[in-house]
Fold these 3 entries.
Entry 1:
Amino acid sequence: MLTVLGDPMAKLFLTEIPPRETIQEEARTMFPQVNPESWYSHILLRKVTTEFEINLDKFFSQYNLSSGRFTLMILLNKYVDGLMPSELAQMVGVTQATISGLINSLEKVEVVQRTTHEKDGRSYVIKLTEKGKKMTGEILPEYQTRINKFWSEFPSEEKTQINGYFERLIKQMKEIGQKPTAE
């Protein structure tokens, strides 16, 4: 069964993953060029990332936030002198339009404020308000506790191994988005 997440560009995901053998057999028969083990790994990775996002959204919705808005709050908490919208956009890998929407929503609930740039009066920086600082201070410990609990299932050696795999996956990720090469 496919479920649509609340996203302007709807993301579909499998709510239940068929057994490994079924996926591998379907890959062999329907797509002979696909490595069945790679296909299964891909489906598992997609499931993990999707479930992680869904559960982060559930957590942050308790505070009327999204993980994206909280990410901005964390950055602004770190950079107390504020950041320009273009700097925020670059740091989180989104467009200026997307960052403007996030800033506007946080400004509307008085979590951030725009202040004139110290060196360039035509520009502005985004800073956390006192309310934003307080919220960040309240949410961050609970968020960190949940992340620690999530990873507590894995001993240190396994986390080190998983981190190594993640680092390799990140390096490989650009391969997925590249245009196919002519053979």
Entry 2:
Amino acid sequence: MLEADADGEQVRLEPQSDSRAVVVLASGDLDYETASVLDAALARAAEVADAVVVDLSAVDFADSTILHILTRARTRAETGSRALFLAGPLNDTLERLFEVTGLGDAFRFSPDRESALAAVPRKWQ
């Protein structure tokens, strides 16, 4: 497990022993000041896994900076023929952020981490 901390905000990578997936667990506030930590974790996950699940269930706040980071992660995943899933449940702030920007359809969402891991295509397991 790789952990990174930025001013009390935590991003943790959790390799899954039963698949080629890595869970990136984000918590706290995700904004301009913590974006680099999440970006580095997502880049690392893409290097070591065929599927990346971003667990956003513990995120309290996020701004548009995070959408840029997630969009970059999606592009990395598509370029490398990898899967990227966003897992919830999402709080109202995150749901509204995806809704207002129209990016809700740009990502594969799962209601929780377990559902996202179950959705990892077999070719990646």
Entry 3:
Amino acid sequence: MAVEMEKRVRELMESKEGKLVRDQAKAAGNGARAAMNEGGLSLAAMGKLVESWKRH
């Protein structure tokens, strides 16, 4: 099992497909951070939700 895990980790670290996976994960992380920043979509959505609660 450890040998198989090592093989998969090496594939992610050394292959073109692994680079694509890493780049996609990085982009997803950047998008998540941007959504949580001031004026980001997640923060804005949370603000709208809170405002709707205040009105009811």
